Amino acid sequence: MLEVRKITPEMTYSLRHTVLRPHQTIEDCKYDTDHEPGALHVGAFSQGRLISIASFCIERNPDFSTEMQYRLRGMATLEEFRKLGAGRLIVAYAENLLKAEAFDLIWCNARTTVEGYYNRLGFNIHGEVFDYPPIGSHIVMYKKLT
User: In the chain, at which end, N or C, are there fewer CB atoms within 10 A of the end residue's CB?
Assistant: First the structure.
């Protein structure tokens, strides 16, 4: 059984480093948006162990007309805990909180290697693939919450 709840930004750094940015320093895993007003960090726990994370921040992508947007950043799940639905539970948890605050769109810069995963979570592609140094190819994806 997985438990999903809000967590502190500091709790995300180790998983961000291990899963998303192993070639960078732990300092590179601290985002400038982590402590901004409205920042939301969500974790999934298995038997008390943090196994999956995602961070959300108020950030407007000018390609979308709505003002009520959140950006999803730093979503990661430990490899040995993938396919248990932790990411899906985290996104659903955040969606419910954001809908309650009248936000109607979540967007992210997704690695092209996980485009299919985000698509299964209900996200759609927007625009063209772009390079995000030093991480690699990304694509903007979005999900309407209304």
Answer: N
Contact in structure between 134 and 23 (CB atoms under 8 Å): yes
Residue 127 zone, left/alpha/beta (φ > 0; ψ -120 to 50; rest): left
Instruction: Please state, in angstroms and rounded to a whole number, the distance separating the CA atoms of residues 28 and 51.
Output: 20
Joined together, the tokens standing for residue 90 give 């985290």
pTM over 0.90: yes
Q: How far is CA 19 from CA 3, 15, 74, 122, in A?
A: 20, 6, 9, 23
For residue range 4-49, what is the model confidence (pLDDT) as tens digits? 999 999 999 999 999 998 888 889 899 999 999 999 999 999 999 9
Question: Which parts of 7-48 are beta strand (E)?
Answer: 40-46
Fold of 2-144: Aminopeptidase (3.40.630)
Of 88, 89, 86, 91, residue with least CA distance to 73 = 91
* Model confidence pLDDT, tens digit, residues 75-121: 999 999 999 999 999 999 999 999 999 999 999 999 999 999 999 99
> Which strands make up the sheet holding 105-111, listed edge to edge?
2-6, 40-46, 49-57, 69-77, 105-111, 136-144, 124-132
